[in-house]
Structure formats: structure tokens, C-alpha cells
Amino acid sequence: xxxxKELEIQKEKEKSxxxxxxxxxxxxxxxxxxxxxxxxxxxxxVLEYEQQEIIGxxxxxxxxxxxxxxxxxxxFNKLMExxxxxxxxxxxxxxxxxxxxxxxxWHNTIIKDKEGNIISALSSGEDITEKKKAEAExxxxxxxxEELIEKRTAQLEAANKQLQQEITDxxxxxxxxxxxxxxxxxxxxxxxxxVILIKNGLLEFINKAMAEITGYTIEELKGKPLMDIIVPExxxxxxxxxxxxxxxxxxxxxYEGKIQGKDGMxxxxxxxxxxxQYNNKPSLMAIVRDMTEHKKLEExxxxxxxxxxxxxxxxxxxxxxxxxxxxxxxxxxxxxLYIKPNTHIFKLLKAVERxxxxxxxxxxxxxxxxxxxxxxxxxxxxSKLLKEDxxxxxxxxxxxxxxSIPNDLWWAEIDESQITQAIDNLIINANQAMPEGGLIExxxxxxxxxxxxxxxxxxxxxxxxxVKDYGIGIKEEYxxxxxxxxxxxxxxxxxxxxxITYSIIxxxxxxxxxxxxxxxxxTFYIYLPALKREIFEMEHVEEEKLYPGxxxxxxMDDQESIRDMVGEMLITxxxxxxxxxxxxxxxxxxxxxxxSGHPFDAVVLDLTVPGGMGGEEANEKIHKIDPKVKAIVxxxxxxxxxxxxxxxxxxxxxxxxxxxxxxxxxxxCKVIKGTEETIGQKK
Length: 683
Known about the structure:
Elements lengths: L1 H19 L5 E6 L4 E4 L1 H7 L3 H4 L4 H5 L2 H15 L8 E7 L5 E12 L5 E10 L1 H32 L4 H25 L4 E6 L2 E5 L1 H7 L3 H4 L10 H15 L7 E7 L5 E13 L2 E10 L1 H46 L6 H26 L8 E3 L1 H12 L5 E6 L7 E3 L1 H17 L5 E12 L10 E10 L27 H11 L3 E7 L3 E9 L22 E5 L3 H13 L3 E5 L2 H13 L6 E5 L8 H11 L5 E5 L17 E4 L4 H13 L10
Parallel strand pairs: 12-14, 18-19, 18-20, 20-21, 21-22
Antiparallel strand pairs: 1-2, 1-5, 3-4, 4-5, 6-7, 6-10, 8-9, 9-10, 11-13, 14-15, 15-17, 16-17
Helix pairs in contact: 6-7, 11-12, 11-16, 13-14, 14-15, 17-18
């Protein structure tokens, strides 16, 4: 279980690190041992260290000044023990590599595991050192100015209060205006957020950050109508709030909106407004914060959470359903051995078998949502898979496909069944979008992802796949929802197809996105991590056949119907078989057989046994009895990656539920003879 916990934490780390690197603020994760488990590039840059110099170090001993670290450590310990709630916003000090103290405005929260235990703290922060210096400088100016005003006022009143009153007021106003301009100039020019001043609906003042957000120069923005940079659907709301300000009604001071840059790109922004005096005239000041990347990250996290929640339910259903299918499919394959081909009964059995295979396909769709649906990968030609799968999916359709795939397209390490399922879902959608017939374009190319590509992918080689149709298209308001589970606009749709595709691509370490215009068609873009084709060879794939033998097999499964069915299979093949319901019973049978001098040639262990010892733990204990045991893991669902990397967990082979007599006998033969190999493995 400790291994499982470590794997779960590692997966969460990798998932979190991907989003940390694209964040525009400092992001730090500190575990319960006070050590830094994650930090993004922004955070390491502020501390003047490389990321690897920070990860694993005690945060309080290495990166906080001595004067505050003990107090901060005490607060952190209470936070980890749940004695206090995290303070949402707080200012703190960090110590850089060069010994400089930097002031950080922190936003703090805690991270819990699935059992609700606090495992770490997440802090996002902004370096406000320069801002604090500017504020201190302004305060010093203000103090001197007040002394100056008081002194001059007293002198003028002593000389001739009545005659000099107008002059005094004018000078005071000029000094105050000058001080105000100095203060705002320092703050505005050092601000990371956009700042604009609006008079009569026109942009009167624009800071450098606002120019960067919109892509215009300051000169291009000055004098431009405010509504020109606001997207059409947000203009009415902006106009209403601007009007409320002019009639002394207070609109919300902070709200969200969308603006359109010079390049046409739409950005999500958070706007804070207030009225100030500018050039002796009232003006509306707006502070504009770019929230585009934050929104994208938030949407991705919400989408992943939805799919993970559904996966908990789907995985449980799939496990029980797979056990039923294993019994049905196995008995069908047995029945076919006793019936002559081309008979009416044989044809009926084949029809039932096809229906079982369709049910198995449905189970695989459910497994895609569960953690047990981890890809079982092998190296494959993406080019071959695309051509075969698309042509098969469109057989009998009035839609044709044009391929544009280079001969040197890289291979990828993928789960063939899952990627085929993902491509099928896209082709089915494209086909349904063109009921009168039409054209689908399928293109692929080799690309290298770079940081400037602005994709949520690490720098590496990828195969980029494009699936484009010229159908009815997708409404703009639906584009952000199409990958959500159960979202559909079709009368008979389940809303699972694209959600499944999204989950498959994400579990392969890739990315999927969509572009569409109503009435013009839809284009999906898929990115899959690539391998060089020339370093792989294809192994010869034998046709399915039976592998009889005289071997002695131990079979463990908690389902009596599955034990009965497998017993019939193995006896038919000439094997000797003994059964166990769960791990303790399997260990006892294995040890007794070894001591009697008639050991088992192989054991087949069900990975998940509700209320009993499962296959992974049983295999570990059997290995202590016999390190040379040949164990095969069997499952249709698992919360662990054992099925995708069985050898890492001490198994010699894997057989997925539901399985037929041919697949079971082939796996047993290969494991016992020591010939178990993976097609497409490195040479």
C-alpha cells in the first residue's frame, strides 16, 4: 500500500508540475516534512536558484531569514496538523541565494489526499519588493511635502492671510497635483497589471503592461474608444457600468470581462475601477489583470476533476461487468470447441460472441474514465493505425477521407485499443456532422513542441494529428463544454464520446483541442508523445490458436462462475488446475504443492478481490516462498498500474478480462516456456 501511495503522490506531482510551469506567479508546494516538493520557474528565478537546487530542501532553514523562520515554522506545523486554517493573503520575506531579502505577497491553501489528510501546503505569491520600496519612497515624499505645506502656509498667513489666500490655495493645489502624479507614476510604471484612464469614453492614459496585454503600442491606444478593445458581447455590460459611474451610482468595483487584442485574440480579464482626479478633471481609472492562462488552468483542472469523479463510478461498474463478460465469453469459446463450424447453432454462438465483444468495448469505454484504465502501451505505427481505423470506421458511409501523412511519420508508444477508440469517436462525430456526405481530412506530422508554442505539453517530440470535417460545425458557446462528461447536443447521444477521447489522450501524456465555426466545419488537433520509427521493429504476430499441455496451474479468482469456466478451459487443454478464492488460500496451496514435490508450473492471480487479499500482495508473498514463480496477473479493472507494467510488480505476464480460451492458453504457454515478449519492443 505504501508503494501505491508513493505512486499516487508522484502522479499528482507530475500533473501539478505541468500547470506550475505556465503560471505567471510564484508557486511553491511544501510537504509535511517542511521540504519543497514542487516549485515553478518563476519561484526559482525570484530565489536565484535552479529548480533542482530548491526541490527537497527545507523551506524554513534554507529560504527564510533567521529572524522569522522559527515563527513561520510553528505556524506551518499547526497548519499541517489542522489546528489552524490557512491565511488567504499574507506578506512574508524570503532569502535569495545572494542574501537579499524579498517581500512576497502570498496566497496560501492546503492540499489533501483522497482520505482528507493534509499532505502539503500550496502557496502562490507575487514579488512586491519594488512596490513596497516605491510606497516607502512615496510616504517619505508625502511627509516632507506636508512639512513644506505647513511651513509655507504659516508664513503666508502671518504676512497677509486675506490677500494671499487665493495664491496659497493655488500653490497648494499645484504641489498636491505634482505629488499625486509622482505617486501614481511610480506605482503605475511598476505595475504588472494594465492601468488605463478613461475620459469621455476614450483612453486617456495607458501603461506599458496594458499595451503588452492588448498587443497595441501606447500611442495606438491613446485616444482610442474604450469599446474598441472590448469584445462585442461584453460591451453592453461595460457601457452600463460606465454610465452608472457618471450618475453617481456605484457599479461593482471588481468584475470579469473579455477584451480583444490587436491580433484578434480574446483574453479573459479581471477589471477593478475607481474615480480619480487627472489633470484637474475626474477620470475613471481601471486596473486590468490578464486572467487568460489562469482561466485555462482552472478549466483544465475542473475538467480533470469531473472525469476523475466519473471514473470512480465507472471503474466499479466496469469491474463487475468484466467479471460477467469473462464468464460469458469464456464459456462461448469453450462451446465453440464442441460444435462443428457452419452449423446453425455455431452461427448463433458467433452472434452471441459478437454481442459480447460489443459489451466488452463498452466496458473499455468505462475503464477509460477509471484509474484502472491506464494505457497498456506498445510501440505502434500511427500512420498504419490511422489509415486502417479511419477506413474501417467509414466503411459503408457516404463520407470519404483524404489522408496527408508523411512516410517518415514517427511511431508512438500507445495503447492500440484506446487510441483506436479515440480516433473512432472523432470520425463518428465528423461523419454525423455531414449527413448528406462530404469530406474528412486526416493529416499527421512530426513536430517538436517548444515553450513558445503555448501548449500544456513539455518540450519533446510529438506526432500531431488533425481530423477536419466540413460539416455543420459547433456553436461557440458549446466549444468549452464538448469534452465534459454527458454534454451532448444530439438527441440520442450519450455525451461520453469526446469525454472518453479527452481522457485517453491525457492519459497518454498528450493534448487535444478543437476549432470550429458554425456552418463551416470542425477541426480537432491531437498531440501524442513520439518515438523514432527506425529504432523499432515489428515482431511476427501469430494467428490465435490453442496451446494444450500437461502443466499444473493455480488459478485464483473470487468469482465462482469464473473459476468454473476457467477450470473447464484448462481441463479441456489437458492442464491440471487447482483453485483459490483469495490470496491467503492461494499462498497456502502454492506452499503445500512446493513442499510435496509437485509444484505449480504457473499461477494466475486476480488483481482485485473485494474483502480479501488481491493478486499483487499474494504475488509478493509467493515470491518469498519461490522467487522463480511464474505469475500471471488477471483483471478487468484496477486502481494500480500493474496491468500496464506487470513485470515491474513481479509478474511474468498479463491476461485481461474478459478472455477467451485461445488468449488464456497462449499467455500460459509463453510464460511457462519463458517466451513472453511485447510486439514492437526495442531491439
